[in-house]
Amino acid sequence: MVDDRDHGYGPVTPRQVFKRLLIVVAAVVALLAAAALWLILDARRTPDGTPIYVALGSSYAAGAGLGPRQPGSPILCQRSDNGYPPRLALQLRLPFVDMTCSGSVTKHVLVGGQYFQNAQIRTLTTQTRLVTLTVGGNDVGFVRDLYLLSARNSDTWFGWAVRKLWVGPPQMANRDFPKLAVTLQSLIREIRRRSPQVRIVVATYPAVLPPSGTCPQLGLLVADADIMRKVQDELAALTGRIAKQEGATVVDMTAIGANHSACSSAPWTRGRRPINEAPFHPNIVGAKATEEAILSAID
Fold first, then answer.
1. Which alpha helices (H) appear in 47-95, and where do they start and end?
2. I need a surface site. Which of 28, 54, 149, 204 has the fewest CB within 10 A?
3. Does the structural domain 49-298 have CATH classification 3.40.50.1110?
């Protein structure tokens, strides 16, 4: 029989229970606050390197899923030394600052706000001579919808939840392409204002979807693939159009990699698997192909 006593010091009163509960809650809050403070300080750390070449953009540039985290980089950015920017910097032998961050939208590059970070462009100076930029997919929900659509077609518990709770991908007219065009234009202009002698190279996203149809690697129905192919192609077209208007060099990896989708025998991008290696993102071959295409464009 359990005695309702506190280690021999008498009965445990409701007041004592409440006090102990408060102590536990306070400890949890303190731990969460410490973790949040660490993330803020980690995100706002001054990046290493001399900004002669500065890489900007989202996970397709950051190299998400391509290996260990780049030393000293914010943990949430999933920045890898196997992404195309570090490889490009080595080839060009340029002092380099990598500001890319997984999950970023164009506004984050321009004004900040992602994971407590300041703007990615904050490192640009009048000394900067090269900027690479790969961004825009998160603005229009590209990878998000690929992932949710593939999950919806799966037999997992997450697939069940998606089928129950998600209404499906937005129509093209309801995606933020017009807003992306305006923000991308502002971003390129601000890069030039900060670095008047810079060469800006805008690389589009390597193709995930093939020119037509679908495949098991994607986990998409034909109708799903048709929807997302329109998003993929419009993203590349809009990005290229705005970049050209603003005098940037365009490296259209969507077109260059059209025969190297996740469905091909020599893919540059992953399909829905492996889950722990950033599905629907460039693989190591795709990162190298992007590096080589940029080198060719600026040679």
1. 59-62, 84-92
2. 28
3. yes
User: What are the beta bridge partners of residue 57?
Assistant: 134
Distance of alpha carbon 90 from alpha carbon 200, whole angstroms = 18
CA–CA distances in Å: residue 64 to residues 28, 118, 173: 31, 20, 29
Round to whole Å and give the CA distance between 43 and 118.
Answer: 8
Question: Do 280 and 225 contact (CB within 8 A), yes or no?
Answer: no
Give the tens place of pLDDT for each residue, 56-113: 999 999 999 999 888 888 888 999 999 999 999 999 999 999 999 999 999 999 999 8
Encoded tokens for 197: 């002698």
Locate all alpha helices (DSSP H) within the chain, ordered by sequence: 14-43, 59-62, 84-92, 106-111, 142-152, 157-165, 177-194, 222-245, 253-256, 284-298
Domain boundaries along the sequence of the chain: 1-43, 49-298
User: Whole-angstrom Cα distance, residue 21 to residue 158?
Assistant: 34
In the chain, the amino acid numbered 17 is: V
Say how many C-beta atoms besides its own lie within 10 A of residue 288's C-beta. Answer: 15
190's CB contacts (< 8 A; 6+ apart) are 110, 121
